């Protein structure tokens, strides 16, 4: 992206006081559930109900496709070599892992016999045989950071290793600060996540774009009652009155509860899910009902935890793979019976792989490249993407060297699965990423060919206080003008008025340079007589 610089009360009774002494604020938030859910509902005091779609979301919603993406996070760093077995280098594999190597008897050979999958994944083997499964080998990124937290952030934001970004690739896709759409705010959550924490992946310029709930139980509460918390089941005291009030406010903040309930109630699961000791299956069972109930959400995310297998790996890892395979098989069968399988792409991801050699604790340590799975009807025949990992003469790091940059997978999905214009895809990704040919059966871009430019949101530059990055893309070269307007629509600042080549840009806007007081403004880009605007708050 090109970067342009701007110029230089009343008192309560003793009973109430007693309640405050008995209940700490931390206890109150924990009991109400707000301590863990609050980050999902509010960001910088902006409720999720304030979400409004951007032109990108509008284009997606209006596309002639019901396609959605289901992400399965394998949290902790999945061991790729015990997931996809290198049968063509089996001797080297067995030497590196004398007690961890999966035996030939416990391996299901694929393709030409050069690789196989762990028999713990046997439930998904029929998907492979039906051409509904792809394996992208050696996925990762350059200069791998082996920290769980940092590497997870890199996967969520699609940044380079050395760069710290504060918005996620999906959040940038769903950026919601477009004032022309305030009167037509989204009727469904753009993204929906089950998990204990809000993933950076869905954070846009002003907050989280996903409806995030901590557990399947929370989803059932919304789906079956239309509310998240029971505002009546409370202790009979002043604390209870406060708890009831906060729960009522929180429930009202979950503006999507009605549509979630309606989608859930209008469908049912057509297969039995292996939900005993399998939280992933529980999560996917809920999502299957929402998809079959035509909720309309475009990206879902669930998590299978436990892949940080530093010790006693063999049994633990095989159990996790069994849960993954059983869950995916039930989910895909459910969608097929419901007539929705053609609209759903399933993808796994994990923050990194594991080392080639086992460690001294019968486990594996953090590594680099690892396989990524895709399942779906529209995979153009299934198969293998990428080459075999070199474990016979491994690098001195002892790692599987990455081959496929995960960001190229994201870019391919945005363009070919979600029909996004290639230029907008690059703008969202922050750079031009290679596309993977034939990864999925591609749809046609849905962007209006008459558009000349598009605003892609804004965010503070956290490295330079007082600076705001205004992001935009020029779809057809020509003269472009960028202005700051007051809420009455009058231009107060012209940032530039000049020729721009086709491409994506960032303008470094410094409000103090123009002595703009705190308040609400609109930044507007004009190209070939067409205007595109977004609301911006300065000084908040």
Strand content range: 15-25%
Structural class, by secondary structure, is alpha/beta
User: What is the molecular shape?
Assistant: globular
Number of strands: 24
Note poorly predicted spans.
3-64, 176-185
Can you characterise this structure?
With about 550 residues, the chain is α/β, with parallel strands linked by helices. It has two domains: about 290 residues, no CATH class; about 90 residues, Macroglobulin (MG2) domain (Immunoglobulin-like), CATH 2.60.40.1930. The protein is globular, with a radius of gyration of 25 Å.
Structure characteristics:
single chain, 540 residues, alpha/beta, Immunoglobulin-like, 2 domains, nine-stranded mixed sheet, four-stranded mixed sheet, 24 strands, 29% helix, 24% strand, disordered N terminus
Short description:
By secondary structure, the chain is an alpha/beta fold. The chain has helices at residues 14-22, 25-32, 34-41, 55-62, 90-96, 125-129, 148-157, 169-173, 216-225, 238-253, 257-265, 279-292, 313-337, 406-417, 422-429, and strands spanning 2-5, 42-43, 46-47, 68-75, 84-85, 107-110, 115-118, 133-140, 191-194, 203-204, 207-208, 210-213, 299-305, 344-349, 370-375, 383-385, 404-405, 453-460, 468-474, 478-485, 491-500, 503-509, 519-527, 530-538.
How does the SSE layout of this entry go?
Blueprint: E1 2-5, H1 14-22, H2 25-32, H3 34-41, E2 42-43, E3 46-47, H4 55-62, E4 68-75, E5 84-85, H5 90-96, E6 107-110, E7 115-118, H6 125-129, E8 133-140, H7 148-157, H8 169-173, E9 191-194, E10 203-204, E11 207-208, E12 210-213, H9 216-225, H10 238-253, H11 257-265, H12 279-292, E13 299-305, H13 313-337, E14 344-349, E15 370-375, E16 383-385, E17 404-405, H14 406-417, H15 422-429, E18 453-460, E19 468-474, E20 478-485, E21 491-500, E22 503-509, E23 519-527, E24 530-538
Parallel strand pairs: 1-22, 4-13, 4-14, 8-16, 8-17, 9-12, 9-13
Antiparallel strand pairs: 2-3, 5-7, 6-7, 8-15, 10-11, 14-15, 18-19, 19-22, 20-21, 20-23, 23-24
Helix pairs in contact: 9-11, 11-12, 12-13, 14-15
